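@channel sequence for tomorrow's demo:
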Amino acid sequence: MSKNYELELYKLLINPEEDDIDISYVDEFGWVNDTEFCVWINLNWFDEFVKRIRDIFGYSLFDEGGIEARIGSDYVCIDLKEVISGYGVDLEEVFPRSKYTH
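structure tokens (generated this afternoon):
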């Protein structure tokens, strides 16, 4: 049975811990322009975020040198659209620009 990448990604960003709705791995996320969907991951949750995204997409996500990121004092920002581009995920269907523009 294949994974529903869109559903798993939605759960990761919106409600990563079903038992505790107050936990969020990301501080912010959304479309920053026509080609970038960025997530700002709190440093306290970065290891857990990487583990969960690896569980969803597999280790091949980090092939070809890993993931490019911008690092701030208390966050890591990645362009999720670029990271998952080879997995057939339609981010705009899951996170419409009209609702998730940053």
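heads up for whoever presents: The longest helix spans residues 46-57.
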